[in-house]
Structure formats: structure tokens, C-alpha cells
Amino acid sequence: MATATFYIVNADSPQASAAGFEEYVLFLIRHFVKQGAKVYLQCHDKSHAEQFAEHLWQADPDEFIGHNLVGEGPRYGTHVEIGHPGVRASFNRQLAINLADNQTTFAQNLTEVIDFVPSEENAKQRARARYKHYRQAGYQLQTIEIQYP
């Protein structure tokens, strides 16, 4: 059964800032790749996807993760594929991490989706709409509050 996990970002957490959130997403990517998952990262738009790819290129050599934008890279892909609305993930992805506010259709053929509930009220409402969509699509849902020191 397909699952969707929503990570709750508290307003007073380090992940509430843009830089802290991006670092947390990188932590999750590393975690899932170490477990052998092929990850699809859904960004807001093409510019956001390119920025995230560039951030991955800046990683320390011992933390580097092979990645590519949709349509680029080797034929069978790298550990991480980065896309945005309007492009399709490769067929060989098991897990998606959604950073797009209002997009869920990319996840139709994936068995696991990671999504986020930001602390800002409008973003929280959009997250609730995505949660409802996943539930209607038959995903098993869970929420996890991000733990931080």
C-alpha cells in the first residue's frame, strides 16, 4: 500500500527558516539514499529545481549524492532525480519528497511520498489539501513532528 508521511514544521524550530528547511530536506535525502532508495524531489518550479541541484553540488565530497534534473544524467538515473510541475519522474523511483505547495499528481505511481506541513497558516492550508488528496487516492497517511535539539 502507498504511504504519505507529512513532517510537521514547528514555527520555533530551525527548520522553519528557509536554510534550516533545506538542510533538513538534504538530511532526509541522504537518509533515504543510504537505505538504497531512488528518490524523486518535486520542487516548486524549474528555477527551484536548478537551485536545489546546485545546492547538492556544493556538498562536501564525503556527503555528495549523485543527482540529476529530469531529462538529464545517465539513462537509468542517479540516486536523486529533481523535477518540477510539468515534467515526469523516471519510472524507477520508489520515494518522492514534495517541496511544491499545490502539487500531488507527480506521486501517482510512487509507493512512498514525503510531504511537509509548514508553520505559516496559508501553507498549512495547502498542506491540508494535499493530505486530503492523498487520503482520497488511497494512501496510508501518517504525520511526524520534526524533532530538533
From TrEMBL:
One of its GO terms (molecular function) is DNA binding. Its EC number is 2.7.7.7. The keyword Transferase applies. One of its GO terms (biological process) is DNA replication. Keywords: Nucleotidyltransferase, Transferase. It is an enzyme of class 2 (transferase). InterPro entries: DNA_pol3_chi, PolIII_chi_sf. The keyword Transferase applies. SUPFAM superfamilies: DNA polymerase III chi subunit. This is DNA polymerase III subunit chi. It comes from Vibrio palustris.
